[in-house]
């Protein structure tokens, strides 16, 4: 009798943690494990702003999934574009564009999230994101290119527009991105004697009335003071009304000449979730505290893609889409999947938040570990210590620590690679949100495949 087939979709914190635990705890031959991912690495997403600012190299935050000597999971290079829970088939588009059906006995939906956008004129055509490794590398190239182009230009208006930068989103990603990139441009401008440093202006805007409200009023104010001390203009209660190639219009009526718009205003669950036709909570798959999808045999979900009940908070709360929850959910889900295989009882996911860390670059940071409010160097030590300890391999830890030490000693560098220099890449070019099938298309696809076989 063939062993049960376990299919894990997504190689983020949740998916990789689940796969690792399954590999450790399943007996040889007890089940077959396959992992669907377009890239054979786990991306340490919280450190992307440091990649964009050049403090870390891209390789240091992309942990290879093929290095492990104990590795026994089959990697399917591609992306899941639909799931038929009745036929127990996942439809996958491989990186070769071949569309295949992958049958499963158990499926783990850890497909993560995509950048959340709104119906704002020009947004997807002109904004850049901070959700993928390629985006972070591209944003770095683009920002440094604006300095070079401003230096080469004789038009004062063009110079001014190239040296204005807008980041939308006052959460962790947006705040860290604005802080880290502002530090990069401030250090770089010293090497451009023809440019007036006063022309460089960073804007951080958010529709919310407070910056990072999860940190609390005291730390939120501390972060705001750091940003304003660095001459980052923070506008709250404001968003984007319209985006164009050379200007951005704010909802308060201001029109800003600008060639750089970075959009970090939240995330939404992967469009894969909509293909199931199941109940959702704000787009995330509604699952039980055991991380199971009710009414669907062998379907589990977790991480950003799932609305996991937060039993530690109660009152109908769901776990926030953070790496901290994703990693711990991965372990619980793996244990519950193994319990299902062995016909044992399942456990609820319960985890109290350990706190929050925000790295603002250099010696600046704000952190709230276990409810203790910190800022400055102590907060920076906690922030980097937390990120360093969360890296999955010793190779990754060594690379990150080496990068941090080298940056502390030698400072920033301002090399750009020329990545996509002839084409302006935007949100549309990095996140393929239009690749998914409808529930009806999935049924047709799996039915025709069944007939052919």
From TrEMBL:
Family under the similarity heading: Belongs to the NADH dehydrogenase family.
Protein name, per record: NAD(P)/FAD-dependent oxidoreductase
Residue ranges constituting the FAD/NAD(P)-binding domain according to the UniProt record: 5-330
Lineage, top ranks: Bacteria, Bacillati, Actinomycetota, Actinomycetes, Kitasatosporales
Annotated organism of origin: Streptomyces arboris
One GO MF term attached to the UniProt entry: NADH dehydrogenase activity
Coiled coil: none
Keywords: FAD, Flavoprotein, NAD, Oxidoreductase
Cross-referenced Gene3D superfamilies: 3.50.50.100
Pfam families: Pyr_redox_2
